[in-house]
Amino acid sequence: MLPRRAVAALAATAIALVLLLNFKTASTFTLPTSAVVGQPTPGSTSAAAQATDPAQSSAGSQSASSGQGASSGGGANGSTASGSGSAGSSSGGASGSTASTGGALKNGQYTGAAVQIPFGTVQVKVVVQGGKITDVQPLQMPTSHAYSAQISQYVGPMLRQEVLQAQNAQINLISGATYTSEAYAQSLQAALDQAA
Amino acid sequence: MGGSPGPLRAPFHRVEHIMGTAISLDVREGILDARAVDAAFARLRDVDARFSTYREDSEISRLGRGELAEADCSRDVLEVLALCDDLYRTSDGYFDARGYRGATGPDPTAVVKGWAVEEVAWMLQEAGAARFAINAGGDVVVRGGVAPGRPWRIGIRHPEIVDRVAAVLLVADGAVATSGQYERGPHIVDPHTGRPPGDLVSVSVVGPSLTYADAYATTAFVMGIRGLAWAATHPGYDAYGITQDARVLTTPGMDRWIERTGAAPVDSPELFRIASAQDATTGAMGGEDPKSSQQPEHE
User: Fold this and answer.
1) B139 touches B109 (CB < 8 A)
2) Full pLDDT tens readout for chain B, 299 residues
3) Which residues on A lie below 8 Å from B248 (Cβ)?
4) Is A2 on the interface with B (CB under 8 A)?
C-alpha cells in the first residue's frame, strides 16, 4: 500500500514535469509570462504595477534560460526528472497562432504538443484571455493503467501552480501558515509590501 | 512608529513586527487620522502583552502559574478563553487550548492573533479606512475590495516553494487564515495523540471573520482531512487543504472564492477540481460513521 502510494506520487511528479516541459518547449506561448507580467492592465494601481518586480525577475530568468526553465518550474523534486522529460517532449509547437514575444499574449486557445510518457499521452490546452493565461486544460491524460486516473489527480495542482506563479504580480496578499518575523523577510508578502 | 496627528490619506502602507511576526496594513482608499492607525497597532501590542506565553508577566503566563485567578483576568482574556471553550466543544476536543488533556495553563495562542486582528480591522473601518487589507503573519483580513468592483486577490502560499502560490482567492470583504506545518516546525499537535497531525500540509479557511477563520484553520489542520468538512459546517466558511501527498482538497463552497477565470473546461476531464466536494466529503467520512462524527451534538 504505502510503496504503491509513493510510486504514484513520484510518477505524478514526473508527469507534471513532462507537462511543464511540454508547456515550455511547446512554444512561444508558454513563458512569455514575463511579458504578460510586465504589462499591467490599464487601470491597475501603481502599487500593482510595481509589484511586478519580484515576480518579473523570476519569470524573466525562466524564460531567459528556457532550456533550464523546468528545473525551477518543477521545484525541489524536479531536477532529476527534468532530463528525461525534455528528451521525451516533442518539438511540435502550438497549433494555434504563436504569440508575439514582446507584447501580451493574444486571446485564444493554444494546444500543446502531444507528449508520450510511459503511462500514455499527455496534451494540454492553454486559454488566453485579456493577455493572460487564464486556464490550462488537459486534452489527453493517461488512462490505460489501473491507477493512472489516480495519478492524474496529482497533476492538476502542480500544473496550475506554474501558471499562477506567472501571474502573481497581481496578487495583493499571501496567506500562509504563520511566518516568523525572520521568515517574513524572505516571504512573498514582504516583496509585495516593499513594492507598495 | 508614532505618526503625528493629522489626516492620513490612502494609499498608504505600514508594517510592524508584533506577536513574533510581521503585520502589514495596506490601505487603498479612505482618509483617517494618523492616531487611529497608531491606535490599531498599539492595540495589537497590548494584546500581545496580555496573551504572550513568551512573556513572564503576561496575564496568560500568570494564569498558568496560578498567580492570577481566572475570575480576575481582563475582559479580553475571558473573551478569548470563552472562544477557546466553544471551539473545544464544537471540535470534539480537537481544539484544546486549555490543555484539558494534560498541559498546564491555558494557551490560547492559536486564536489570539485572528481575534485581535479582526477587532483591529473594525477599528480601522470605523476610523475611515474604506478599502484595506491586513496580513498578520499569513492570516489575512480584507475590506471593501482593492478597488471599486475588484476583490482583493489573496494567494495561498505553496507549502514547499516560498515564492509561489497554490491558488488565488478573490475576496472583497472577509478573511483567510492558513494553518500548516511548513514553518516553525511541528508546533501544532493533535491533543488525542500528542503528535503532529498527519495527513495535511496546510489548511486555509475563508469566511467573514478572521477570528473564526483562524480558529477553524488551526482546528481543521489538527483534525486532518476530515477537518476540512468540519470547518465548512460553519455557515459562510469554506476550506482549502493541501495533503501530504500533494493533492488539493476543497469543500464545496470553496469554488466561489477560488479564481477560475478561464472558460470552464467543458470537454476535458476536470483535472483541476480534484478539489471536489466529494473528495473532501469522502475523505472526511472515509467510510466511517457519517455526519455524527463531524457535527458534535452541542451545535
Assistant:
1) no
2) 545 678 999 999 999 999 989 999 999 999 999 999 999 999 999 999 999 988 999 999 999 889 999 999 999 999 999 999 999 999 888 888 776 545 566 788 889 999 999 999 999 999 999 999 999 999 999 999 999 999 999 988 877 776 677 888 999 999 999 998 775 444 566 666 666 566 888 999 999 999 999 999 999 998 888 899 899 999 999 999 888 777 788 888 888 998 874 433 322 222 233 233 333 333 333 333 333 333 333 43
3) 156-157
4) no
Domain that holds residue A167: 2-195
CB contact under 8 A, A188 and B155: yes
**Based on the number of CB atoms within 10 Å of its own CB, is A92 exposed (0-12), middle (13-18) or buried (19 or more)?**
middle
* Residue that is written with C-alpha cell 455526519 in the block: B291
Whether B24 sits inside 8 A of A172 (CB atoms) is no
List of domains in chain B: 7-293 (3.10.520.10)
Angle A52-64/A148-166 helices, nearest 10 degrees? Answer: 120
Quote the minimal CA–CA distance from A180 to chain B in Å: 5
Residue for cell digits 498541559? B103
Q: Which amino acid is at B203?
A: V
Of A9, A159, A177, the CB nearest to B181: A177
* pTM for this prediction: 0.61
Number of domains making up chain A: 1
Q: Which amino acid is at A46?
A: S
Question: Cβ contact (<8 Å) for A177 and B146?
Answer: no
Q: Tell me the chain B residues in contact with residue A12 when contact means C-beta distances shorter than 8 Å.
A: 246
Cβ-defined contact of B160 to A76 (cutoff 8 Å): yes
Report the C-alpha gap between B5 and B10 in whole angstroms. 15
Q: How far is A24 from chain B (nearest CA, A)?
A: 18
